[in-house]
């Protein structure tokens, strides 16, 4: 006995009704039109053409139809799926085109820009200047000496014969580490390297020290709390002020060329006796500006001379503090500010330029090493 044919159940295959199919197709088309990006379109494709999409599910129902109705239903589904596939294809192309346009704008390269000029940065002229200064002393047979930037108060002041009540020893001028009674300061000059060099080296000592120094000045056109100094020290038997003068002459010639006259003006420093300020003749006007009616000189302010630093014969107390017998040895010392030298040697008018690190300032000084 054969069983009766399974009858056509319109409820079971309602997804194949024209209305239902139209609705599923229209929803798919609306979602495709609304997809604003390729990612969104991918999700829409999955939702409306994937295995679990209404149209795919309807397609599966065809088998449940009586054979006579299958062709008709198949045509309707095919048309709906075809419309959706076409809409997906069109929208995909539109969105790809949009993306390509966006990439072209966002990743545009200006091919007219120079390609062979990678910015290299620049050496800071303070570095170059310190190397030049050191070179002059090295060529005279001196060695480089170093000391710490965070220095014992004893080296910074006591060993250099600064009395306990010297004004430089207050927080007004000096950066103290933590508090005033720690005995530790940021060195206010490179002179403490004098005592360090004498304590750590065999005599005779011929050294030059360069580096950062610190004072509680506000940054302005002519001051900076962090600056640089150079210090020369010679301690040997029989050194006199003539040796000091000769070394400074050689230094000025080495740094400025042209055998410029140097003069010493009496002054006072606790660590030298006698002490002097060092002037060199102006390397621009060569003293011509002091003559009446001559062109004013911007480098020396028409003084004819430029003050470059301080010097003197090492105070016997300093030698004693550093364990050197002042009866047998004598010495001279010479110190100067590197920023100040850069200012007058290169016409730098504002200290800000030196601390800001803008390569528009540093580049014109060149890359010399
Ligand atoms: N240390 C001094 C200062 O900071 C500069 C100086 C003067 C150094 C005389 C010296 C010197 O070696 O002999 O102002």
Descriptive labels:
369 residues; alpha+beta; 2 domains; two-stranded antiparallel sheet; 12 helices; elongated
Helices and strands in order, then pairings?
Blueprint: H1 18-34, H2 38-49, H3 54-61, H4 67-106, H5 125-139, E1 143-144, E2 150-152, H6 153-156, E3 184-186, H7 192-200, E4 205-214, E5 226-236, H8 241-256, E6 262-269, E7 272-281, E8 305-314, H9 316-321, E9 330-337, H10 338-346, H11 351-356, H12 359-362
Parallel strand pairs: 1-4
Antiparallel strand pairs: 2-3, 4-5, 5-9, 6-7, 7-8, 8-9
Helix pairs in contact: 1-2, 1-4, 2-4, 5-8, 5-10
The chain binds 3,4-dihydroxyphenylalanine (DAH).
Q: How would you characterize this protein structure?
A:
This protein has 369 residues and is an alpha+beta fold. The chain folds into 2 domains: 97 residues; 241 residues, BirA Bifunctional Protein, domain 2 (2-Layer Sandwich). Helices cover 40% and strands 18% of the residues. Strands 1-4-5-9-8-7-6 form a 7-stranded mixed sheet, with helices on both faces. Helix 1 runs antiparallel to helix 2, helix 1 packs parallel to helix 4 and helix 5 crosses helix 8. The protein is elongated, with a radius of gyration of 43 Å. The structure holds 3,4-dihydroxyphenylalanine. The site of 3,4-dihydroxyphenylalanine has 11 residues, from strand 8 and strand 9.
